[in-house]
What we know:
Layout: H1 20-33, H2 36-39, H3 49-57, H4 65-72, H5 76-81, H6 84-91, E1 100-103, E2 112-116, E3 122-126, E4 133-136, H7 138-154, H8 159-182, H9 185-189, H10 195-205, H11 209-223, H12 226-233, E5 234-236, E6 242-244, E7 251-253, H13 259-270, H14 275-281, E8 284-292, E9 303-310, E10 315-322, H15 345-356, E11 365-369, E12 372-378, H16 393-411, H17 418-425, H18 430-460
Antiparallel strand pairs: 1-4, 2-3, 5-6, 7-8, 8-9, 9-10, 10-12, 11-12
Helix pairs in contact: 1-17, 7-8, 7-16, 7-18, 8-16, 8-17, 8-18, 10-11
Amino acid sequence: MQMAKEIIFDVNQINVSKTKHELIEKGLERYQETPSEKLTAYQKVDRNVIKIIKSVEKGLIPELLPMRRQRMVKSAFSFYRGTAGLMDFDLANQVHSNIPVLLCGDAHLGNYGFYASPERQLLFDLNDFDEARVDNWENDLRRLLVSIYLAGKENGFKNKKLEKLMKKVSAAYRSAITYSASMQLMERFYLSPKVHLLTKIIHEQTDSELEESLTSVIEKATKNNLDKVLKKFTAVNDQKERVFVEDPPRSVRVSDEQLPKFAAAFKDYRTTVTESIRVLLMQYKITDVIRHSVGVGSFGTRCYLLLLTANDGSHLVLQVKEALPTRDSFIPLDLDIDLHREIGEGNRIIKAQKIMQSASDPFLGSMNIGQRSYYVRQFRDMKGSFNIEKMDWQGFKLYTRVCALLLAFSHFHSPTAPMIQGYLKEAVDFDELTAEWALKYAQQVKRDYKEYKAYVKKQKD
């Protein structure tokens, strides 16, 4: 059994002292060492999927496991979303380019969405960095391509169409790498994925329902503000105090004994944000805390909502999410997760997010409570996403290409990224071979999903 590897996030891993031309030449060398046909040679996986999933579940909240399993058995794509660590473990045994960049680590179709910049502009970009780390660039692309096939199958799209689309998405990624490389460094640094640019692309390239869907999502995202959050998740109690509404087991108020721990951690969190936000937060205090689970992959981890009350009586809601070590760093283990390894993981996530996004949530920060690490952000503030399940074929095709474009832009924040350009310069058969690899892995996911469904059914019986 493969030994667990410890992931240490250090941007110096991608620090280089070479010129852009030298890095491109280095990428060409990497291609000579590991050409496309070698990089995409599929290595069959050999592991016990149930044992790996159970090792992940050991670190989760037991009472939430039935709901997590229910979400994961919904479809093969849902299962895929909830098993990022399983794929990371499998990827460790595949062939790699040995070109490191800062990865999202979980770049599937569902992890792109809308959010607000500090200037209150609506942006669309990668928005989940729980698995972020320095690793081989192709791993992000592989995860994206596999998600395209699985999500597309759930929508009823034919195999041949999806196989062709995966090739085109790979080509879109390559084109975006070339485009990023053509830009000057500062021009690229200030490149912002503003929604009006996304709107323009969709308007020019499709007459599908995606344009109508975009308008709807933008409208919903802009309405996802504090007032809506307070109305949905809080109420005024008999003491005339605003508090969270409980919905067990998903949403449960923390005990009075835990509140001082959050108050102390809140002070530490304030040291991880900008001075302007730090001064703003000095005027708030925590008045209620609820454990509130979200998503698929994160469901069952320790996630909380903080209700903050200002000195003028107004409110703010922050989300606090547990920052586990990247899943492949403790899979598969027969023992529980060694908790001391969590310390600093929240800082890893917010560092990665701030690097890979051109603009980020101004409240993004981190904290530790005991031996657990967390990252913090505003809850549902101008956030939204497309409903992939309701996309027509034209919309799905365009959406997947936009995701590839954004992935390439994110990768090009890494100083080592010109090596990707150099590698792909000679990789004339890259798109077809990478799509073939993704299709083979997608079949493995379907087999794993079938096995997992049988396991869950047995647990219920």
